Amino acid sequence: MYIYKVGVVGAGTMGAQIAEVVSYSGLPVVLADVNAALAKRGVDAVRAIYQARVDKGKMSAEQLAEKMLLVSASSGLESLKDVDLVIEAVSEDMKLKAQIFHELDQICPRNTILASNTSALSISALGAATMRADRVLGLHFFNPAYVMRLVEVIPGLATTPQTIDDAVSFVESIGKLPVVVKECAGFLVNRVLMAYVNEAVRALQEGAAPLQKIDQEMVSFGMPVGPLALLDAVGLDISFEVARILYRSYGPRMTPSPLLETMVKAGRLGVKSGHGFYDYVSGEERDQDQGLERLLQEVRARTGQGASPWSQSRLLLAMTNEAVTALQEGVASAGDIDLAMMAGIGYPKDKEGPLHFADRLGVDQVLHELEDLAQTLGPRFWPAPMLRRMVDAGFTGQVAGRGFFTY
């Protein structure tokens, strides 16, 4: 099925960005929210993205005007009765999303695909809120959507192959890179990323290294930004909620760092609050009880943890181990996992992704280092069973000619 017209529900940051991406590809898009003022603000945000391109000389004012003719605002969902695809982009609240899907099911034609931009919630549960679970799936865009190429395509339990094919074709038609991911908490990129950033917070909490050192070393590895600066940019409250969702599904290895929860409760949410791991408001007087160093001391006293060793490996292998776990669960293929991590979080292209990284380091070495980390830092580093199976079979990576990939 070809998509001729798209609806986006939720005119906030991601909704506006998705609407811009769709209109840039030449498709008309209706941006809907609960009232006209919010919908108009979303359209204004779309215009601002285009205006930034004009200011940089990447498009003309005439082209901006042409693209904006494709974008319309709507208060409520009634105007979505003639669209071929709806992408829901409201806040991460399952009850709210389910209600929207129920209403869309009543309004949209039976053939319309209903998609959610959720980063972690159940697609199957959203499908169950409708009478068309076969036409419901996830389309998870990454922020900023007009820059990031990756879109995770997540089928629910009832989603048909035809719906998946239609969604993949649509994602390709708007110039994005689709990766089909098996439904699970956090899908692919966020669950692997959370293992990495949560370990960075733990390293800081345990006094393994100062925050600047942690970030600088990961940038030196090739990451576009350090893990703690990344958390500040995303928002510590959002990251903590994702961490809680992952913990509910995967258990102790995904336990959120106590420091992360403490910072959220203290109002240090990152860039948006002016203070997170870093301070973004210069010269502002602030209650010392809210300062990062004071919070660190409180958490260290409460947890009773002494200083732990620092190395890049504890972050990189936390990510690699979760990627292997996702692979053995059939969440995605090895190639798609590495592709998604490069396109979704900026994993350095010369390293080719966490599974290629493991092959170059040696799968046997990865297993050995994870066993050591599990002994010194705890069972969250317990090696994925697939690693031992591969080592026993001689699939030890690039040197052996076979590992996660063939050489």
Q: Report the sheet with the most strands, covering strand number, pairing sense and barrel closure.
A: 8 strands, mixed
CATH architecture of the largest domain: 3-Layer(aba) Sandwich
Order of strands, main sheet, comes to 3-2-1-4-5-6-7-8
Distance between the termini: 39 Å
Low-confidence stretches: 285-289
Mean pLDDT: 94
Could you explain how this protein is built, in words?
- The chain contains 17 helices and 8 strands.
- The protein has an 8-stranded mixed β-sheet with strand order 3-2-1-4-5-6-7-8, sandwiched between helices.
- The chain has helices at 13-24, 36-55, 61-68, 94-107, 123-128, 161-173, 189-205, 211-221, 227-234, 236-250, 258-265, 292-303, 312-328, 334-345, 354-361, 363-377, 385-392; strands at 6-9, 29-33, 71-75, 85-88, 113-116, 136-141, 150-155, 177-180.
- Helix 1 crosses helix 2, helix 2 packs antiparallel against helix 3 and helix 16 crosses helix 17.
- Helix 4 links the parallel strand 4 (85-88) and strand 5.
- With 407 residues, the chain is α/β, with parallel strands linked by helices.
- The protein folds into 3 domains: 6-180, 3-Layer(aba) Sandwich (Rossmann fold); 189-303, N-(1-d-carboxylethyl)-l-norvaline Dehydrogenase, domain 2, CATH 1.10.1040.50; 312-392, N-(1-d-carboxylethyl)-l-norvaline Dehydrogenase, domain 2.
